[in-house]
């Protein structure tokens, strides 16, 4: 069976370089956010990605409170 990339392939080296750059960029941006952004700024960055999940949790809490109070 023929391999798509050999170990010395230029394509494989380019792919490895791209992946390494992406990982380094992610690490650097997360590290800077952790040390430079306030807790509120980090929350505001996180909220759009978790908005649907947070709304579902909020609705569950509301229904639990309503059932406890018998409304």
Task: Please give a structural write-up.
The chain crosses the membrane at residues 45-65. Keywords: Membrane, Transmembrane, Transmembrane helix. This protein has 71 residues and is mainly alpha-helical. The chain has one domain (8-70). It has helices at residues 10-36, 39-69. The N and C termini lie far apart (68 Å). The relative contact order is 0.05. The model has no long low-confidence stretch (mean pLDDT 81).
Rg over C-alpha atoms, rounded to the nearest angstrom = 23 Å
Number of domains: 1
What is the share of helical residues?
A: over 70%
- Measured by DSSP, the beta-strand proportion falls in under 5%
Shape: elongated
Structural class based on helices, strands and sheet pairing: mainly alpha
CA-to-CA gap between the ends? 68 Å
Low-confidence stretches are none
> What average pLDDT do the residues reach?
81
Keywords: Membrane, Transmembrane, Transmembrane helix
Transmembrane segments: 45-65
């Amino acid at each position: 069976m023929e391999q798509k990339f050999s170990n010395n392939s230029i394509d494989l080296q380019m792919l490895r370089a791209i992946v390494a750059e992406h990982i380094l960029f992610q690490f650097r941006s997360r590290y800077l956010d952790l040390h430079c952004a306030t807790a509120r700024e980090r929350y505001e960055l996180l909220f759009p990605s978790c908005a649907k999940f947070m709304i579902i949790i909020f609705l569950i809490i509301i229904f639990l409170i309503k059932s406890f109070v018998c409304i």
